[in-house]
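Issue: ligand-bound run for magnesium ion - logging full I/O for the record.

Environment: standard queue, default settings, no custom constraints.

Inputs:
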Amino acid sequence: MIWGAVYGDIIGSYYEVHSTKDYGFPFQGESAFTDDSVMTAAACAAITANPAPITPLGIKKRAREYAAQYKRFFSLFPNAGYGQMFSEWASSPEPYIQRSYANGGTMRVVPIGYAYDDLEQVMLQVKASCYYTHHTREAVNSAKAVAAAVWLARNGETKDAIKKFIEDNFHFELLASLDKIRADYKFDSRAKYSVPPAISAFLQSDGYESAVRLAVSLGGDADTMACIADGIAEAFYGEIPRHIAEFCALRLDKTIKDAVNSLCRLINSEEKMNAETEKDISKFFRKRVRERVLYLLNSKKRGELLDKLAHTAEDYIDTALTVKKSGNPLNPELIREKLGKTVYVIAANSPLDGKHAETDAALDELWSNGSPYMLCGNGYLYVEAEYDFSTHASWLLKRNDKL
Ligand SMILES: [Mg+2]
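Outputs:
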């Protein structure tokens, strides 16, 4: 995951300068990663540093975190081929809002399409990621279209469905074939000129390599267009040919590798945990527990998974009480009502994250009262009538620190 975008940038880099219309172009020894890879790595670093989902009210704060990573990575790789406007912005001591129409906001959103479970969150993160540098509807829509395409592709949607979603939501005209435009197509990094053909290159492709060849052989902004087309292509086809991975891996910097790998590891571990949680919870409910149940669905990120689990639970439990879901503070009164009763608590995020002091106090009271509980914290599930709360709590706290 994500490497598809970086490798597209590397293969296209030579042809950004020496443009070609030849689909069978050779890979060039002088190929190197450029700004597209550097900024993709910066986006990875921003998500790894703070993977928490946001609400619309949190966009500005999140935007500052993305901006800080763009500046940091720019300072590490100041000569990676940025546009002049971006270089000025990235060199300034304070971030200011720049209204660029170019494709630079789009080339770095592939990681966002991978990192979040729901599309609405992907769109919010994209908006934040564009806020300081590409503060125009054109650039934001282009970036949203590409992140949505990645998200839809990795969730198993067909090309027709991806095309329709982008056309309906972002009013792009996507082409079934690039042959009509290839002869006259020229370098232009404006988002509305370069992003739709890059997405079209993916739609017309029959594999990862074919997507990079179609994007580069348009003879335009080759590295960025290949980065976009192949970021989606990898999500759709699920693999990158080995000769391409080997060719590109030699041309990468360790800092970029590390940033991308860190996010890949985080995403993989979360996927694994989601699968484990689902398995454990269904196993638990198969025992047909008949108790009063208090659900604490305190997760935005795993809301969908937990909704599904809550429905599974209702098949088995007489009284299921959904107290809260979607990230709002838990209701301390409802928790206190359950004191002394058997209570099962399901929470995707630890209720002990320190954010909701009153709720935490109520839960402490509940737990110290000795109620058996089931706690599912950050993907792990505990089903124990006799439990050592302090062990679990410290484990969860440790885990939250890490995240
Ligand atoms: Mg570039």
